[in-house]
Fold:
Amino acid sequence: MTYTDQEKPLSSHSTDRAGQSSNYVQNAASAHGLSTAGRRPSGSGRKRTYTVKEYDALLRRVAKLENMVAILQTVGLTVHAPLKERLGELELLYGQYDVHTLCEAI
Structure:
C-alpha cells in the first residue's frame, strides 16, 4: 500500500505538514458525516496530528458504516420488524457482506 505525503506519519516538529494532514482528515470525516470534535484538545490551541494508523482506522470505519447503510437500504425493513423476518432478509445477503456487519446492521 502506498501513501501520499499527507497520509504518512507526521512528526510533532513539522507544523506545516501537521496542519495539512489535520485538514485532510477533517475534510474526509466531514465528507462522510463524521465528527472530529472529540479528537482535538479544546482550548489548548495545538493542532492534532493524525498517524497513518488512525487514518486507516477511520477509513475502515467509514467503509463499514457505508456497508451498514447499504444493507439497511437493500433489506428495507424497519427496526420494529420481527427478528425472524430480519434474519430471513439478511440471510439473502450472507455472501455479499461480512457476517459481523450484517449482525450490527440489524
The two ends are 33 Å apart (CA to CA). Confidence is low (pLDDT under 50) at residues 10-18.
